[in-house]
Design brief:
heterodimer; A: mainly alpha; globular; B: mainly alpha; elongated
């Protein structure tokens, strides 16, 4: 079966977000807590963290994981912990 | 690190990072046990909220995940570097554990061959709302080029990995089914995407053409 237009859209997004140097999903996962902390603390995204940001823009799986961490931390914070 | 004064200990999960580390590594069973209970409650609360947003809450599943996460956190405790707060570090481990488990549950029995066997790219597909004949012609020409690149430049393994991902199978699951590791598979995919991007650019299609197709509502 041919890819549908939505899947072709995702394929175009993959191509658009392709960089010469990228982090893989496991590499992104290894430093995700660092990136989350920078976001929470409002610290600058620089160095390796730029590659994490790029990876999250291109990879829906890792981006979901990132959002889940933020949601979990927000719920914990809201509970006053 | 100073020995924590238990008389002035932060209540519940409001421990400092140093307190978390000291308590979880304590040889005093009462202190360690209390810290484990606090950590367990904190992870349960966080994961329950996070997963419920995605409609995936199941008490037994949550408890299993938190138990598995606690073991991982204790195992990795000595490698905590302090580049994030302890809470952020622990929650990230728990979310990763949950995601891996959900992946196995959802995709473990799905055949990669069945998912991708008939996948092909039809250059006649239309993406977005193209208003002018010129836009339609430009997209059509780009898709013809893309089709040619897929046929001539990509290996079967690369196309299988791309289509599996486009059909929702997580990369880690594809890697497992292809008996490779996620880092190696990521490189295979990255090489494939670079070939497609460079091939399109070499044929005169810029990344702006790709963005234009996406921005028109793909």
């Amino acid at each position: 079966m041919a890819l549908n237009s939505q899947q072709v859209g995702w394929l175009l997004n993959m191509i658009q977000e392709t960089h010469d140097v990228e982090l893989s999903c496991p590499q992104c996962g290894e430093v995700l807590d660092h990136y989350v902390q920078r976001i929470l603390d409002g610290e600058p995204i620089d160095g390796l963290m730029i590659q994490v940001k790029d990876h999250l823009r291109a990879c829906s799986g890792c981006n979901d994981q990132f959002q889940m961490v933020l949601d979990a931390l927000e719920a914990i914070e809201a509970d006053g912990e | 690190m100073n020995a924590p004064d238990h008389g002035q200990r932060s209540a519940g999960a409001r421990r400092s990072d140093d307190e978390w580390l000291a308590d979880l590594a304590s040889t005093d069973e009462a202190i360690r046990g209390a810290a484990l209970v606090d950590l367990q409650e904190m992870l349960l609360r966080g994961l329950a909220a996070s997963l419920s947003k995605r409609g995936k809450v199941d008490d037994a599943f949550l408890e299993d995940i938190v138990q598995e996460s606690l073991l991982k956190i204790l195992d990795k405790l000595s490698s905590f570097e302090g580049r994030s707060k302890f809470r952020t570090w622990a929650v990230t481990i728990a979310v990763r554990t949950a995601v891996s488990s959900m992946r196995r549950k959802e995709w473990g029995n799905v055949s990669l061959d069945a998912l991708t066997a008939d996948a092909n790219f039809d250059p006649g597909v239309s993406v977005g709302n193209l208003e002018t004949a010129e836009d339609r012609a430009r997209q059509s020409a780009m898709f013809l080029q893309l089709h040619e690149l897929i046929e001539s430049e990509l290996s079967e393994k690369q196309w299988t990995a791309i289509t599996a991902e486009l059909r929702g199978m997580p990369l880690a699951e594809v890697a497992e089914k292809q008996n490779t590791n996620p880092n190696a598979l990521y490189k295979v995919l990255h090489d494939a995407r670079k070939k497609l991007r460079r091939g399109l650019e070499a044929a005169g299609f810029t990344i702006d053409d790709v963005k234009a197709a996406l921005n028109r509502g793909a």
